[in-house]
Design brief:
The protein is α+β, with helices and mostly antiparallel strands. It contains 8 helices and 9 strands. A hairpin with a 6-residue loop joins strand 4 and strand 5. Helix 3 crosses helix 4 and helix 7 runs antiparallel to helix 8.
C-alpha cells in the first residue's frame, strides 16, 4: 500500500491540468491476480472447446459429453475420476473466493483514499488519489526521489531457488511531505522510471529484499547485488542489463531446446500427420509454432543481454 506522512499542500485541479500533458503515467498495480485469472480462463476455454467438439461430433449436449467423459475416466482410473468429479465444485469455490476478495477490495477502497497513479509532468510529479481526493503536485526542483527495488525469493517445483523483482517503490521527499508508492512490475520498468527520476533535485537507488524478516539465501544476495549494480549503471551510463547472467544462460538453453524439439517432432511425426485428421494436424502445427515463437523470444533475450554487456564494457572503458 501507500504511506502518507505530514499534511501536504494540495494544488487545485485547474493548476495540475495546466501542466504539460505529454507525460509518463504509471497506473499502480497492487497484485498479479490477472495472471492467475488468465491461466484459469485459458483452462476453461480448453475444456469448453473439448465439450463443444464432442457435441458437434457425436450430436450430444455438453452435459452428456461431460458425463460420458467421466464414465470413461472412471473405467481407466478411479483417482482421476475423483479429481474430475470435484473439479466443478472446486472451480465454483475458487470463483466464489475471487468474487468475495474483489468485493472486499472494493469496500476497502471505498472507505480509504489511495494512490492510483503517478504522472511525471513537465515541471513535477503528480500523485493522483481515489475517492475524488485532490491530486498532489511535487515540483522537480524541490523534491528528492528514491527508487527502491524489492526482490523476492521463490522456488520452482524442483525446489530450486528463483529470484525476481517483487515490486518497485517510488519515494518522494519534498517540503510538503514524504510519499511512497509501490508498483508491481518487472525489471524493464526500472529504466523508464529512472529516466523520469533524473529530473528531480536528486535521484538515488537502492535494492533490498521484500521480506526482511526471512533469512536471505546467497542466491538472493547475488541477485540484489546484480540489480543494484545495474541501477547504478543506468544512472551513470544510461544502460543496464534487464536479464541476470543466470537468466541469460537459461534463455539460451530454453531457446535451443524449443528449437530442436519441433524439428525432431517434424521429422518423426511427418508421416503420421499426413495420414491424420485435419484437426490433429492443426493442433500439431499450432504447438510447433508456439515452441518456435518461444525459441525466437529466448534467443532475442540472450542476444540482447550479450549486446548490452558489450556496450556497458565499452562505456566503462571510455570513462576511465
Amino acid at each position: 500500500m501507500f504511506k502518507y506522512e505530514h499534511n501536504p499542500h494540495k494544488l487545485t485541479a485547474g493548476f495540475i491540468l495546466f501542466c504539460y500533458t505529454m507525460a509518463m503515467k504509471i497506473k499502480l498495480k497492487e497484485s498479479n491476480a490477472i495472471r492467475f485469472n488468465l491461466i484459469l480462463g485459458v483452462y476453461l476455454l480448453i475444456i469448453w472447446g473439448c465439450l463443444t467438439r464432442a457435441q458437434s461430433t457425436f450430436g450430444i449436449s455438453r452435459w452428456e459429453a461431460w458425463q460420458q467423459f467421466l464414465q470413461e475416466t472412471r473405467q481407466e482410473s478411479l483417482f482421476n475420476f475423483l479429481l474430475l468429479s470435484i473439479f466443478p465444485w472446486a472451480l465454483l469455490l475458487m470463483v466464489g473466493g475471487m468474487i468475495w476478495a474483489f468485493i472486499q477490495k472494493l469496500r476497502l477502497n471505498a472507505r480509504k483514499p489511495r494512490l492510483v497513479s503517478v504522472s511525471f509532468e513537465e515541471k513535477g510529479a503528480v500523485l493522483e488519489y481515489s475517492l475524488s481526493r485532490p491530486a498532489i503536485f511535487l515540483p522537480y526542483n524541490q523534491t528528492d526521489f528514491t527508487l527502491c527495488a524489492r526482490t523476492i525469493l521463490s522456488y520452482n517445483k524442483y525446489h530450486q531457488p528463483i529470484c525476481h523483482l517483487a515490486y518497485v517503490e517510488m519515494i518522494f521527499a519534498s517540503p510538503n511531505g514524504k510519499f511512497s508508492a509501490q508498483h508491481r512490475a518487472g525489471i524493464p520498468i526500472i529504466p523508464k522510471i529512472l529516466n523520469e527520476g533524473k529530473k528531480f533535485r536528486s535521484c538515488s537507488v537502492n535494492t533490498k529484499t521484500a521480506c526482511p524478516d526471512n533469512p536471505t539465501r546467497q542466491e538472493e544476495k547475488d541477485f540484489i547485488s546484480f540489480l543494484q549494480d545495474q541501477m547504478n549503471n543506468y544512472l551513470h551510463y544510461g544502460v543496464m542489463l534487464t536479464v541476470s547472467p543466470q537468466q541469460s544462460t537459461g534463455f539460451l538453453i530454453l531457446g535451443a531446446t524449443t528449437l530442436i524439439i519441433p524439428l525432431m517432432l517434424i521429422a518423426v511425426l511427418a508421416p503420421i500427420v499426413q495420414n491424420s485428421s485435419l484437426f490433429l494436424s492443426k493442433i500439431l502445427c499450432v504447438l510447433w509454432l508456439i515452441m518456435l515463437a518461444i525459441s525466437v523470444f529466448c534467443f532475442s533475450k540472450y542476444i540482447g543481454y550479450k549486446r548490452t554487456t558489450r556496450k556497458l564494457e565499452r562505456l566503462k572503458q571510455e570513462k576511465k
